[in-house]
């Protein structure tokens, strides 16, 4: 089949290497892959090793990227959506019941979600996190993860996620909460 990528288990390249081969429009940014021109809401965006971000439908519309990433953990951050049917490679699922409003408080979930993503990463897995569109809630949790576990400032994390997925736009309430979350790590 033309265009199909077959990966051998014994000499399988990393997800980052495979994505670079898969789409030459992706360029290195801070040791990870940033998506320059795939801002489409229906794509899965690689954020860093062990983490990708998307909207709910992207898991099914961007099957090629999902196949390359081979996610082992899926986090659904959309209270209004039913539980997500899981790709075959996913063995863990977590739902964060939050809505996308400026008064929704993500802070009670930020540490736990970042911890879950990091635990999956250190065990060799990859997490895909999604909300309805992959624009606000799940993007905010990606930023929180980068602040807590990748040592980034909130501003740097926001800009990094924007490079990877240009369509992100966490609501103003989430931005305020992320700044407070960052402050917790700057005090330590």
Automatic annotation (TrEMBL):
**What does the entry list under GO cellular component?**
cytoplasm
Instruction: Tell me the lineage of the source organism.
Output: Eukaryota, Metazoa, Ecdysozoa, Arthropoda, Hexapoda
Report the Gene3D superfamilies cross-referenced here. Protein tyrosine phosphatase superfamily
Q: Which GO terms describe its molecular function?
A: phosphoprotein phosphatase activity
Q: Which organism is it from?
A: Cinara cedri
Domain called Tyrosine specific protein phosphatases: residue spans? 107-166
Query: What family is reported?
Result: Belongs to the protein-tyrosine phosphatase family. Non-receptor class dual specificity subfamily.
Q: Which UniProt keywords apply?
A: Hydrolase, Protein phosphatase
Mind telling me what this protein is named?
Protein-tyrosine phosphatase-like,Dual specificity phosphatase, catalytic domain,Dual specificity
* Alphabetical list of SMART domains matching this protein: DSPc
Instruction: Please list the residue ranges annotated as the Tyrosine-protein phosphatase domain.
Output: 43-187
